[in-house]
Design brief:
By secondary structure, the protein is an alpha/beta fold. It contains nine helices and six strands.
Length: about 230
């Protein structure tokens, strides 16, 4: 892998800090709360269908997820659910919004070492703008990044717009992330470079098969392995 990148971008959720396990726990609590209306797998399946339907309206992030939980609760209960349960669902979402940010192992030292090598580091993530800004502030990592981009989606056109904003060519851009679908495939598709750092839990809508013969691509088991890839000690 080349080492003279002008910009190194990091995904946020499940690349810099813990995210998906929090959503899984929230969904599990939600399914138990609605147990009177069906088994957990049925409630979970109904919620997933609602999420998929609403993505174009709400985008990615916790607020859209909570709205989908409320809509699903109304649907599975045939609009008979008590208002107190709706209030509980909203409180569950607010609790997660206020949850402390848990950095993944090795994140801070990796960012600090890359900074010392004068790499320009940015965050390129999906989600709700306010929520992602809040998590970044809580993480204590703000000073590590030159720029923060909260993207409506992570497809090739989204990355092209990001690179145009940064005024760099794809060959000068390296993306680090835990999602093949969002962080890796579209970046290499436009001629950029990418490093895949799998996380042990992946959101169902981010799961894809790894294409064969991906170019400009490396897979590592943890973020610390990025440094030797770039020749940083």
């Amino acid at each position: 892998m080349k080492k003279d990148f002008k910009v190194i971008a990091f995904d946020a959720d499940d690349t810099l800090w813990v995210n998906e396990p929090n959503f899984r726990n929230l969904e599990s609590d939600y399914c138990r709360l609605l147990s009177a209306y069906g088994p957990e797998e049925d409630i979970s399946g109904a919620l997933m269908k609602t999420e998929i339907k609403n993505l174009k309206l709400y985008g990615y992030g916790l607020k859209g997820f909570v709205l989908s939980m409320i809509e699903t609760a109304l649907h599975v209960s045939n609009h008979s659910i008590d208002q107190s349960v709706i209030a509980q669902i909203m409180d569950m979402g607010k609790e997660l919004l206020q949850k402390p940010v848990e950095l993944l192992d090795g994140v801070r030292p990796v960012l600090e070492k890359l900074q010392k090598q004068n790499y320009k580091l940015i965050v390129a993530t999906k989600g709700d703008l306010l929520d992602q800004e809040r998590k970044l502030a809580k993480s204590g990592l703000e000073k590590c990044f030159h720029h923060v981009e909260v993207m409506s989606d992570k497809k090739e056109d989204n990355y092209r717009k990001l690179l145009a904003h940064l005024d760099i060519e794809p060959r000068d851009f390296l993306m680090i992330g835990n999602s093949l679908k969002s962080d890796i495939i579209p970046v290499v598709g436009i001629g950029g470079y990418a490093v895949y750092v799998p996380y042990h839990i992946t959101w169902a809508l981010e799961e894809v098969e790894q294409p064969e013969n991906l170019e400009n691509f490396e897979e590592i088991t943890h973020l610390g392995e990025l440094l030797p890839l770039l020749g940083v000690e």
